[in-house]
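User: Sequence recovery, please. Input:
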């Protein structure tokens, strides 16, 4: 089992505000990992208590020692998304992970059920962000394409989340050589709660690095069917940026006499700009005639206030959804050397619990902004009326959709906020996906 650990940077009096924002940023990255990872996973349904459960799925295809192809499926989840009930003097959550693998003829070819229980002493521990569990299921599969269906079932209420993951197995050798997939990993603490922590390299299905996960580890294997004593292959590993800039990270020449060679390297991403990146491995066969290519995707997210990665003007544009006109004018007039400190002070002044490490308002604002920028933007990148309402009120309790049969392409959506007894009406007149606020029209005036 693996437990995600968030460790606070030791405090120094001159850096107290910064350290608190760093801690909050770590929690923010955890929640944004959910958004990014889930955006690459096909969600079939979600009936769990959490609107956006922290469930991440990834897989790795390689070969066993005897040469048979197999797939490792990794599922990481947060027990805090489950229902805890009292059991004697403790609280417990029971859940299971049902995995089934289907071929292209819609025939189920493999299945496995993983069961687990989590016990805690204090109910307040449930909402802690700093503990996850990682599960592994291995299957022997022939070459081809498959669909893995992963259902996480909360056994206390039988609610579940169902996800779909595509699997591709390709072990066909080229000139007697083959390579596994790239497994993306992280360094983390693992072990039972309360025991002495041990650090190791573990698979990371979330694959979001940066401020909290500054080092990425990647692993792959090279295989040779009939290795000769003088056979060797070369490999190159590249990082490809969101702007398609290709950087050579590692290269080497290896003997394949053993038939299987494991390769592990790391990459520091603390200085990488935010965005989605590719890892690419090229393996050149003996004689240099053929190349085998493998790829993996990872994301980088940095502190949204860090001016090394974002222009000051862009940060102020984002803060227009939060700050008053007077505050924005003051921030705009701040000298460049003081701009970073001014941003930290802006959020420190809004901390609803200044005596704690976590700034809840900061977390909520940037989590909502991240989601709004991905779900509610116009063609030119501006946040739409729906995005602004989402920023202000959060996700609605219910969305009701109406299709106007009298006007071609026109659609209406009603967002219901039960606790506020509020209905917000949006309308898309031309079917562009840009829903404009209709009622209450004054909602966005301030």
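Assistant: Recovered sequence (446 residues):
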């Amino acid at each position: 089992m693996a437990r995600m650990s968030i460790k606070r940077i030791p405090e120094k009096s001159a850096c107290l505000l910064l350290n608190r924002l760093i801690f909050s940023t770590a929690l923010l990255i955890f929640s944004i990992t959910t958004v990014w990872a889930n955006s690459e996973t096909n969600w079939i349904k979600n009936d769990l208590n959490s609107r956006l459960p922290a469930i991440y799925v990834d897989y790795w295809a390689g070969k066993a020692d005897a040469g048979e192809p197999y797939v490792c499926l990794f599922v990481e989840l947060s027990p805090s998304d489950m229902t805890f009930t009292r059991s004697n003097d403790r609280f417990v959550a029971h859940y299971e992970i049902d995995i089934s693998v289907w071929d292209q003829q819609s025939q189920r070819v493999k299945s496995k059920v993983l069961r687990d229980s989590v016990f805690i002493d204090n109910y307040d521990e449930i909402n802690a962000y700093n503990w996850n569990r990682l599960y592994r299921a291995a299957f022997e599969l022939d070459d081809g394409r498959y669909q893995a269906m992963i259902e996480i079932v909360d056994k206390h209420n039988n609610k579940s989340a169902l996800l779909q993951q595509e699997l591709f197995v390709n072990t066909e050798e080229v000139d007697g050589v083959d390579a596994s997939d790239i497994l993306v990993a992280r360094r983390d603490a693992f072990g039972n709660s309360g025991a002495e922590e041990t650090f190791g390299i573990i698979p990371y299905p979330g694959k979001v690095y940066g401020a909290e996960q500054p080092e990425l580890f990647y692993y792959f294997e090279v295989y040779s069917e009939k290795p000769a004593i003088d056979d060797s292959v070369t490999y190159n590993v590249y990082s490809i940026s969101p702007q398609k800039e290709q950087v050579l990270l590692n290269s080497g020449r290896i003997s394949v006499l053993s038939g299987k060679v494991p390769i592990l390297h790391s990459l520091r991403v603390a200085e990488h700009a935010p965005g989605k990146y590719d890892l690419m491995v090229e393996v050149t066969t003996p004689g240099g005639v053929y190349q085998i290519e493998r790829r993996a995707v990872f994301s980088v997210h940095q502190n949204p206030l860090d001016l090394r990665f974002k222009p000051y003007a862009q940060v102020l544009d984002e803060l227009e959804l939060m700050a008053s006109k007077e505050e924005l004018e003051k921030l705009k007039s701040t000298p460049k050397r003081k701009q970073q400190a001014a941003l930290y002070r802006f959020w420190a002044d809004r901390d609803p619990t200044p005596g704690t490490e976590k700034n809840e308002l900061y977390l909520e604002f940037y989590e909502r902004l991240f989601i709004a920028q991905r779900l509610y933007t116009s063609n030119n990148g501006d946040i739409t009326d729906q995005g602004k309402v989402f920023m202000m009120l959060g996700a609605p309790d219910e969305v009701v959709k109406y299709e106007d049969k009298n006007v071609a392409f026109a659609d209406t959506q009603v967002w219901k906020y039960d606790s506020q007894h509020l209905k917000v009406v949006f309308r898309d007149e031309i079917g562009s996906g840009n829903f404009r606020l209709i009622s209450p029209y004054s909602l966005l005036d301030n």
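The longest strand covers residues 90-102.
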